[in-house]
Amino acid sequence: MTAANLVPDMRYVRASDVVATDMNGETVMMDVQKGSYFALTGSGSQIWEQLAEPKRVDELIAALDAEFDATSVEDFEGLITGFVGDLVAKGLVKPAD
After folding, report:
1. pTM of this prediction?
2. What whole-number percentage of the chain has pLDDT above 70?
């Protein structure tokens, strides 16, 4: 799934078979089923934290906008939407039931 395929009204949440931990400010994750490892830093870790509970992409954007100074980022919404799309494509995030 790409950012273009994300459904605006759908809530997304972390996949249950992904384990993650914080290691000195970096979120290190493992997809247990696939045996794949991933690492997130900075705002990627913040997005991962936000997705502990089901959220629509617009809710995620609003939460992160409150945390970061998004005025300096030209396409803040596009970056977050693209990142969430990548997480979904990798199976780390899924549509909430």
Report:
1. 0.85
2. 90
